[in-house]
Amino acid sequence: MKTRLFTIPRPEGYEQEVRAAAELLRSGQLVAIPTETVYGLGANALDPEAVRHIYEAKGRPSNNPLIIHVPSAEWLERYCENVPELAYRLARRFWPGPLTMILPAKPVVPKATTGGLDTVAVRCPAHPVALAIIEAAGVPIAAPSANTSGRPSCTSAAHVQEDMNGKIAGIVDGGDSAVGVESTIIDLTGEKPCLLRPGGMPLEALEEVLGSVGVDQAVYRELHEGEQPKAPGMAYRHYAPQAPVTVVTGAPERSAAYIRSRAKADTGVICFDEYAQLFSDLTVERLGSVHDQAAQAHRVFEALRAFDHTQVREILAQCPDPSGLGLAVQNRLKKAAGFHTVEAL
Ligand code: TXA
Ligand code: MG
Fold first, then answer.
1. pLDDT on residue 13
2. Which ligand 1 atom sits closest to the C-alpha of 232?
């Protein structure tokens, strides 16, 4: 298949590209779309056949459900049963934006989309091009991150091309993803709201609205055999470059010293900007300043992906503390490492 590339030329005047992408989606094809978190691999969420192609293109297990993307909270009622007032409160505060809510699904949402569950994940993305495409398609768009299953998520159209060229009908290039990590997922179907995946909306922001929030264990640690995460996707090894990753926790000056003492000539290093000069003889990906969590989130997948174009045989990564966006960045690094971490004392 020839994959068409639609480049969004300017911040406005892209009706033609939007119409073409929406047309492909309505006809059951796959189109990668830009969002503020990461690129999504879109299909008509109400078309089970189209949705099956997503699993095929990504090589994703079919029991791992998809997020449906809507243009506003007004669509919640169409696809979700018994929407609690709380969902509207969260939507008013955080949508469009990097927050996904799990709610009971209406039967109109195919089981292919929900991975067989009777709940559905819903998000309204904060990207004008994504919103325009969903509006023009007139259907919710199911979109997992546009990477091949197991690889780091895509934060640019070039990343999507690496993984999906020839496999999908189109890629809409809307520039680099502003946030850089996926949405925060909150489950609203239990007694108490529960965080299933940390992401672009910090837990602290949700706590301001919800009070106390439960956190699924899969956020922090590898699950034991037989344990099931509430978000099926959290069970899989993820975001992994080809070379094995070790996350080095502890105060930044200690983790930098640890990495320096352990590194060999073919070690790749992910570090905060302030420590990059320590590793000038090695292949280094900077994560941003130790004080700039937004920069770290923006860079983390690009950094992980970059090593696949090098000869490094192992990767040692500094790791932010878990406050704010640091929780999501830490989670992505640890998952890339298969939770292989050492603490620098
Ligand atoms: O920022 C994002 O959320 C991006 C952009 C494209 O919107 N999408 C994304 O989708 O990250 P994906 O498929 O890569 O991750 C969705 C996660 C998976 O871990 C999946 O298991 C979980 O959401 N999920 C989806 N539906 C669910 C449900 N009904 N219950 C629990 N977890 C669910
Ligand atoms: Mg993903």
1. 82
2. 21
